Amino acid sequence: MAKIWDREDPNWVRMHISVMDSPRIKPEPGFDPDQDAPGLSGWEFVEWARAEYGGEDDPRYLARVLGEWAWDAGNTIFTAEDLASARNTVVIPDPSGETETGWDIARMGSDATVGYILRRGEVWTTDPETGKPVEGTGVEGFHIRRRAKWVKAPLFGDDPANPGSANRIHDITLGDGTQIVKVDASGIGSGVIDGLTQLNPENRYVIVEVFGGAKSSDPRAYRNMRAEQFFQLKSDMNRNILDLDPEDVELFDELAGIQYELMDGGVIKVEGKDAIRKSGRKSPDHADGLWYARLDVRDLLGTLPEGTILSRDRETIPDYGLDEFLSQPGMPMRWNTGW
């Protein structure tokens, strides 16, 4: 559609309507916005979008307020086509498969602790009219959904009125039967990991510490792990194997606004959280929780070299497969992946 819009084609009539054309902003004779269209957007939405997205140059502002094709503005990682793929892909989770969660830990009062749950399954084709699954493709995909979100919770504590983030994650993990819990370990996230360690004396799940600022697997291509994993998500979308909730508006808004730049040598750097906050935008808590959930640690857990230090008491475990590893009585409750 964008290509049709951008070229002069006599077969198409092109009409452009932005929020600025709303009768709430440009009143029309005989039209009462409060009665005829009480939900119509006006200046309130424009001002909210300008503050939420950090200015009028943000691609989300260009698209949602001005109605422009803006997915290439500002070197955004995820194009409209990428995000459409994630909305439309259908992955049927394997009911007997393992579940994993990823948690971004809130750092400020307005930020949120957000968790996503990942289930692997089979990609299915869909009916183009109804969107309902039709037939399995035999291709493995990822079904990821937001599991929980909260704000202004302590890192650890069992106050019934406001349980700590570690306590909430622990209860959710046991309730879901999750095997692997990946937690943002930078900054105050380490306090949540300490709390989970205390709450998990029977080693019922593995806790993986994730450091987004650590070295990527290919430092010549990506500045850090966070940049690499966002482009992994983009690859999943391009391959039509990532199934995200179309109703998760906050997630899609954040993904649409994440930008990158090329450093010396072509190394990709993704805009950091501090830079995002300084620009007046909110921290991408949902987007970070998503890539934590998607981060694949199966090979690392399943092929640990003999003598690898795994747990706080520095016990070692030889090279087990993942299933056997998880069932060991000495299974570590805490494992630093080095990421």
Tags for this model:
13 helices, 339 residues, two-stranded antiparallel ribbon, alpha/beta, disordered C terminus, single chain, globular
Q: TL;DR of this structure?
A:
The chain has 339 residues and is of the alpha/beta class. Helices cover 32% and strands 19% of the residues.
What is the β-strand count? 10
User: Total helix count?
Assistant: 13
Mean pLDDT: 83
Oligomeric composition of the shown chains:
single chain
Radius of gyration: 23 Å
Shape assignment = globular
The major beta sheet can be summarized as: 8 strands, mixed
Helix and strand succession? HHHHHEEEEHEHEHEHEEHHHHE
Protein structure class? alpha/beta
Report, as a whole number of angstroms, the end-to-end distance.
40 Å
Helical coverage, percent range: 25-40%
Task: Provide the low-confidence segments as ranges.
Answer: 303-323, 325-339
Strand content: 15-25%
Description:
There is one protein chain. The chain is of the alpha/beta class. 32% of the residues lie in helices and 19% in strands. It is built from 13 helices and ten strands. The strands form two sheets. Strands 1, 2, 3, 4, 5, 6, 7 and 10 form an eight-stranded mixed beta sheet that branches. It has a two-stranded antiparallel ribbon with strand order 8-9. The C terminus is likely disordered.
